[in-house]
Amino acid sequence: MKKLVIAExxxxxxxxxxxxxxxxxGKKYIEGNEYIITWGLGHLVTLADPEGYDKKLKTWRMEDxxxxxERFKLVVIPQTRGQFQAVKSLIERKDVGEIIxxxxxxREGELVARWILAKAGNxxxxxxxxxxxxxxxxxxxxxxxxxxxxxYENLYHAATARAESDWLVGMNATRALxxxxxxxxxxxxxxTPTLAMIAAREEEIRHFTPxxxxxxQLIGKGITFTWKDKKSGSAATFSREKNExxxxxxxxxxxxxxxxxxxxxxSQPEGLYDLTDLSRDANQRFGxxxxxxxxxxxxxxxxxKVLTYPRTDSRYLTTDVAETLRERVEAIAVxxxxxxxxxxxxxxxxxxxxxxxxxxxxxxxxIIPTEQxxxxxxxxxxxxxxxxxxxxxxxxxxxxxxxxxxxxxxIQCEGxxxxxxxxxxxxxxxxxxxxxxGDENGKVFPSLKEGEVIGExxxxxxxxxxxxxxxxxxxxxxxxxxxxxxxxxxxxxxxxKTLQETGGLGTVATRADIIDKLFGSYLIEKKDNEIFITGKxxxxxxxxxxxxxxxxxxxxxxxxxxxxxxxxxxxxxxxKEIETYTKELMKQIQNGTGTFRHDxxxxxxxxxxxxxxxLVNGKQGxxxxxxxxxxxxxxxxxxxxxxxxxxxxxxxELIGAKENQKFVCSCGHKESMQAFENRRKKExxxxxxxxxxxxxxxxxxxxxxxxxxxxxxxLANLKL
Length: 720
Known about the structure:
The chain is α+β, with helices and mostly antiparallel strands and 720 residues long. The chain has 5 domains: 2-145, Rossmann fold, CATH 3.40.50; 163-206 and 471-590, Topoisomerase I, domain 2 (Orthogonal Bundle), CATH 1.10.460; 212-269 and 402-465, Topoisomerase I, domain 3 (Distorted Sandwich); 275-398, Orthogonal Bundle (Topoisomerase I, domain 4); 601-716, no CATH class. The strands form 6 sheets. The chain has a 7-stranded mixed β-sheet with strand order 2-3-4-1-7-8-9, with helices on both faces. It has a 7-stranded antiparallel β-sheet with strand order 15-12-13-14-11-10-16, with helices on one face. Strands 19-20-21-22 form a 4-stranded antiparallel β-sheet, covered by helices on one side. Helix 8 (275-286) runs antiparallel to helix 15 (474-482). It is globular, with a radius of gyration of 30 Å. Residues 2-135 form the Toprim domain.
């Protein structure tokens, strides 16, 4: 009898087939003597839309809510029906005696396979392949140590409970809000608290009043000393009078050196990357969105096989993975990394407690290189950037610490204290890998002794103003979602602890999708790299039930789901409580007294239904969108491109059509398409005519998709 292996995607399926020696190519599978390898295309099966239970639910009406299926139905996703039928027929083959689940090792990966098997009516025994990278070695070892699929039954129950509870709350609340206010308003237990956090930050900024502060600098013996308040230890005061008083008091006096302290110190490298930290750094350094970083990581994991599984919330390795460190270092001994890897490979590689800890790894360890040798020339520019971040973090933890000598000089004048501090590198250690030469700001001070008097010096007043908190970027928003404790409305210590233990809002696998959904629903928009909340979002938050805006809700859910996954709680009991909660939400929305008004209405009329169009800022540019949710008309009027402004080097927007197209920058620079192409030709680089044509083709394809279908798709695959 043969064994059927179900992978999550074709690329992984082909890799498994090659390693297992399967060479007979079928249309949607690959067969060998012992194994048949097939795959999903991500999810092939999903929860049925409301109309799948009752045709009348195709029309959104308040009187039909709440929708409470007695038993949730699974349906095949229409776009992937052919692949599902192929997998089903393989499951039913008489010569198949066992099925091996080889989807991604995590909650959602488990759901992908189990729903396929459930919909296909499988009764055959199951095994589980559980690996963190898809290198040949990992696949071979994984198949040599297959797990009993029963070990993952509870993980499947938790995944199903997550999907069904999000369906109940998301579908019902979204329909209720949309029907009540006749506008496309969606909400959910993760996206709504995330939106509330952005709104809270916006309010902080709006109500912030800058406060002036004052300080003093004393320059003597070639050293700049900074005044420090004796009581508070602050280097500034909010009192101009106090600052002036100190200035006058010490002007023309002599200064005495009261302490010269030299201390040898060490600095340890930052930990290995999890997905959140990697996404934050990629956003900060390259402007990549969370979704973009995840897609690049997925390619480096699945296609190139040079990095381990991306959807991880751990920054540690297990002891068994630590045994493979030398092979991983050898695999990246190329190009700019060769000198660093040679240094590491010369000595003994010792796993340190700072990055090896079995207790701090749940499903997957930190993101590190695999044992597969990398060919840098095969990576795209963006893939090289992400790969470089991961490799340097990885090598840094294998290097010695950074050692430096800290010199702190304290002087006094008329009872007022000033200080100067500087570091001199002694051993650059891990900074050889992570930082360019000379970034340590080393300061070598002239030799001063305690008791020495400085007679000649310059005194300088300094002043500034306090700044409001920074607006969120995608990187900082991801970190806030991971640890949203400070945004809790009630300072509940137990809920705060739960939030931290369960990893905050959403999971490391879903946060990028949540942020993308907020952009796609026109609830947030981006200016440069900063996130702004829209008028639509502000109104939505005023209409949504209070409970849905609190991070505590998702903390409680994730805690319960985690307990279900560990076999410590009942999924059925959890779902009963969710049903009760959904009914309460419906009452709150139905009894709401708020109103919704579009604040972005234009005078341009929809060519399909005659209603006025809305002007929205999409992630890729501006669009006209019909206000009627059932119409769905949209028209793109500008696109954000990768073309850089010759004046300020920011990305430019492409506006207009055909021969009237032109590039416009936020700094005011404008140039026609012809002028742009001529300039780029002269520079001999950049965006070609073909690139622009391909980009335009892609955007036109997007425009043809009606808005209501996109909303329906979003709701059908709700990841709230």
